[in-house]
Every structure is written in C-alpha cells, then in structure tokens.
Design a protein that fits this description.
Blueprint lengths: L7 H12 L1 H32 L3 H41 L11 H10 L3 H44 L6 H27 L8 H17 L6 H8 L2 H21 L40 E2 L3 E2 L3 E7 L2 H10 L31 H15 E5 L2 E3 L4 E6 L2 E9 L6 E13 L2 E14 L14
Parallel strand pairs: 2-9
Antiparallel strand pairs: 1-3, 3-7, 4-5, 4-8, 6-7, 8-9
Helix pairs in contact: 2-3, 3-5, 5-6, 6-7
Length: 454
C-alpha cells in the first residue's frame, strides 16, 4: 500500500476508509467498552489498596488510569448510543424518505417553526454523522490529555523527591538545579493549561509566543503531545468539534457532581465513622472484610461476637507506620531507605545497610521490640502485654497481629482499645488509636447470641 499522502491512490483509499469508518468505530468501541468494563474493578481495587498502604506513586498512577478509563467508557457509550440513533435514522429514511410537515396537519405557525429548526432530514443525518465521528476521535484525544497531565505531575514529583529532597546530592545541585527545574515545570504547566483553555491564545501574539515557545517545545516531549497534535489542531479548526467540546465539558462536571452524591440516613451516625462504644464500624472486624477492596480501619479484631477464649488482633501496616517506628527509635533507620519503587535486579547487594555492627536479624528483633513498645492494648480498663508479630493475613494485606487471652473476662459487651505512642519532636505521647466494641460469650454459655466463632 502506498504511503505517499499526495498520491491520488492514497487519497482515494482514505476517502474509501472514511466512508466505511462507522463500521470500524462500532467494532473498536465494542471491544474497548468490554475491555474497560473488565479492567475497571481491578484498577479501582488496586488503587484503594495502594492508598491504604501509602504507596503514593502507585496510587496516583492508578488514579490517572482510572480517570482515563471512566472518560473513555463514558464517551464510547455515548458514541455507541448516537451511532445507533444514526443507523436508525438511515433505516427510517429508506422507508419514509424526507419529512413532510404538511402531512402532520399542524398549524401554519408550527410548520414554519419546524421547517426552520429541521430544514431537512438528510441534514439531521449528516450532523449526527459528524458528531459521532468527532466524538469517537475526541474520546481518545482526551486520554492523551490525561496521560500528558499525569506525566507532568510525575516529572514534578521526581524532581522534588530525587533532586530537591535528595540528601545524597550536593547542596548546589539540590538548590541550583532542582529549584529552577521545578519552577520551569510548574510555570510551563500553568502556561500550557492557559493555552489549552484559551484554544491557543498564547500562540497568537508574536511577543507572547516568543516567550511561550521554549515551554511549548520542551513540554511537547514531556507530555508526548507530538503524537496527537495533528488530531488536536484538526479538531480545533472544526466548528462541530468546538461545539461538541462545549457540550462535553459541563457533562463531565455534572457526572463528577452526581457521582459525589451520597444518601445519609441519620444526623448522628455515618457508615464511615470510627468505631466507639456506641458505634461498630464493619472495617474493624476481620470477618466482615468480605470485599476485595475492604481494608481494616486503624486496627481490627477477628469478629464482633467472640466465643473463643482469645481475641484475634490485627493492625495494618503502611509506610507511615514504619516512619513512626523510625521516629520512636532512630537507631533503626537504615543507611539507604529501600522503601518505594525499586527494581528487583540488584547489581551489587553487598554491605550492611544498618547502623552499627548488627545484622539484619538482630535489627529486625529490635524493630519488632519497638513496635510492641509503641502499641499496647486494653479491654475496658484492663491492660494487656503486646506480643505483635509481622504477618500477611490476606494477599497484599500486611500488618501486625497477635492473640490476647480472655479467660478472666466476664460475658457481655466490652470495648477493645488500641493505644499508640506517637513521637512529636523529642516528646512521646500515648493516644487512643482505635476503640472497638465486641461481645464476649464463651461457647460454654448456652444463652449466648448467634455469632461467628473467633
């Protein structure tokens, strides 16, 4: 096939594909909608897990992916609906031809008005064809916009974390290179956004354009905009494209607002409230975490009704938890922080990454000792020793767990308290981390209510 875009044969091929493009649009839309519906839940669940685990980079990458998925899904569903309407109009035209307003027997005023608003059924079909084609194109154009925005945010985060806040670099590199680079990225992002909202307003004045061009050139590579610029400018010089953009923009805001709405049943209680003596949040009970996206809130016990002579305790782990341990015992902080996104390929893994002459196993014991000093437990007013260990109770759900004896506990309702020490500057204060109500009815007690065994 010839790729010379000036040749008559290539133009004829494009004209032929253009006439048959609606078939390709429907085919691609169908496969894309199926794939997006399949991928939506896994992306959302992994994003929630990354948020709870304080995986910042992973969370934002999945967030951008989820936003792109939602935009593309909405646009393609709208496109398929309009294409269906267009195909129906074509079928109706074959049967009925053009609109004959005189056959409707309306008054002269309504006939004049309708003829002005609907001059021809063929024009209606042509307009519908234009909207469908432009909507299909703009659907994928918006995905590139989301990609561009996410790449800029990632660049800003990389400069901030690996240049400005990197203590291993010389101070002149952190300040002299990192800060100007950060200012360039932020200023370039603002100018690019203004130019986008103003439909190229910064490119019209020659003096402003001279200042804006270096940002435009650099951001063309950072945002990969060179891949979709021909599509963008072809879209902007079309009046149908601008009209469709004006229609879609309020639609996106309306959808965002509608999805943020929630129904509240009470003035005093909400399903997301922390557990207390008067409220039991299901996220504080491991047997009620039945969905993949469910995550323990601050801490959790095995079940709401305990029948065994012990209670299962679990405290979820995150990077914030480890940072609290380092603040409590600074000697545990390693020479090189291995947390975050890293490659599994290690070129040189020799050397001790821990302070002093202690091995990793000895430092791990000291780490868990500090954890058990930070966390303590109470049932009502009775204190219990902490013997937490690190474990994985479910796939990708890491944390500290232990089992506490309940032999001397009387049957009835009780409050389980998790106390956590926090280090603020040089002072250590203990505060309530979680308060979880439960009922203790040993199996030997025949009058106990129904409930799951712990």
């Amino acid at each position: 096939m010839s790729t010379d875009y000036k040749s008559p044969a290539f133009k004829k091929l494009l004209d032929s594909l253009q006439q048959q493009s609606w078939e390709l649009e429907l085919l691609i839309s169908g496969f894309a909608i199926f794939g997006l519906l399949t991928a939506y839940d896994p992306i959302r669940i992994n994003m929630i897990q990354a948020e709870h685990a304080d995986m910042t980079y992973r969370f934002f990458c999945l967030l951008f992916l989820l936003v792109a998925c939602m935009i593309l899904l909405f646009n393609l569903l709208l496109h398929v609906t309009l294409r269906g309407l267009w195909i129906g109009a074509l079928g109706l035209r074959y049967v009925s031809g053009d609109i004959e307003f005189e056959e409707l027997r309306y008054s002269e005023r309504f006939i004049r008005y309708l003829k002005k608003r609907i001059p021809s059924f063929d024009k209606y079909i042509a307009n519908m064809e234009n909207y469908c084609s432009i909507l299909f194109a703009v659907s994928f154009l918006l995905i590139f916009y989301v990609l561009s925005f996410s790449l800029i945010i990632i660049c800003i985060a990389l400069v901030g974390n690996f240049v400005i806040e990197n203590d291993e670099l010389p101070n002149w590199v952190q300040k002299g290179v990192g800060i100007p680079l950060m200012l360039f990225l932020v200023l370039g992002m603002i100018l690019t956004f203004i130019d986008f909202i103003g439909v190229g307003i910064l490119k019209r004045n020659k003096y402003v354009a001279a200042v804006y061009f270096p940002f435009y050139w650099v951001f063309g590579f950072l945002t990969l905009s060179f891949l979709y610029r021909p599509l963008l400018y072809n879209f902007l010089d079309n009046r149908f494209g601008k009209r469709l953009l004006l229609m879609l923009t309020p639609a996106y805001f309306l959808i965002t607002f509608l999805t943020s709405l929630s129904h509240y049943n009470s003035n005093y209680f909400d399903s997301d409230d922390n557990s207390s003596s008067l409220f039991a949040n299901r996220k504080n009970y491991l047997d009620q975490l039945t969905e993949k996206e469910d995550y323990p809130k601050n801490g959790a016990i095995g079940t709401k009704v305990v029948r065994a002579p012990f209670v299962h305790v679990f405290i979820p782990f995150s990077q914030d938890t480890e940072e609290s341990v380092f603040k409590y015992n600074d000697s545990l902080r390693p020479k090189n922080d291995l947390r975050g996104l890293r490659s599994g390929i290690q070129i040189n893994n020799s050397g001790n990454n821990y302070t002093g002459k202690y091995s990793k196993s000895e430092m791990t014991k000291a780490y868990m000792q500090s954890v058990n000093e930070i966390y303590s437990f109470k049932i009502d007013s009775t204190s219990y020793d902490s013997e937490l260990i690190f474990s994985e109770i479910r796939k990708n759900l890491l944390g500290f767990e232990t089992y506490l004896p309940l032999d001397s506990l009387p049957p009835g309702k009780h409050d389980f308290l998790i106390i956590r020490k926090r280090t603020i500057k040089d002072s250590v204060t203990a505060s309530l981390h979680a308060k979880i109500p439960f009922w203790y009815y040993p199996q030997s007690n025949s009058s106990s209510p129904d409930g799951m065994a712990n």
